[in-house]
Amino acid sequence: MTSFAKPDIVHKLKEIHPDVSNAKLKEIVDDAFDVMADCLAEGKEVRIQGFGGFKILRSKEREGRNPLTNEKIQIKAKNLVKFVKSKTLQDFVNQQS
Q: What integer pLDDT is reported at residue 96 of this predicted model?
């Protein structure tokens, strides 16, 4: 399996919109991800119709163990980002394979 990063998104958008500069496309992609990250940081769910949604889950503080010393340690609570795929995306991915 190969990866697909932000520069690849910019490249694909350039194929669709050849009249828009790479710099402008990069700015738009960066801005879109920044807006989504800001919304998540504010505790908002980000939903993209036909793709899926991102939401914040809060893990609880819990006790763990240091694997080197076997000493008990307290693991702090933290925010986790969860992605939930849409049925449309799931169906599309299954059609492609």
A: 78
Q: What is the mean pLDDT for each group of 10 consecutive residues in the chain (97 residues)?
A: 92 97 97 97 96 96 95 96 96 87
- DSSP one-letter string for 17-57: -TTS-HHHHHHHHHHHHHHHHHHHHTT--EEETTTEEEEEE
Task: Phi first, then psi: give them for residue 70, nearest 5 degrees.
Answer: 65, 15
Q: Does pTM top 0.85 for this prediction?
A: no
- At 46, which amino acid appears? V
The two tokens of residue 20 are 């828009």
- Size (the chain), residues: 97
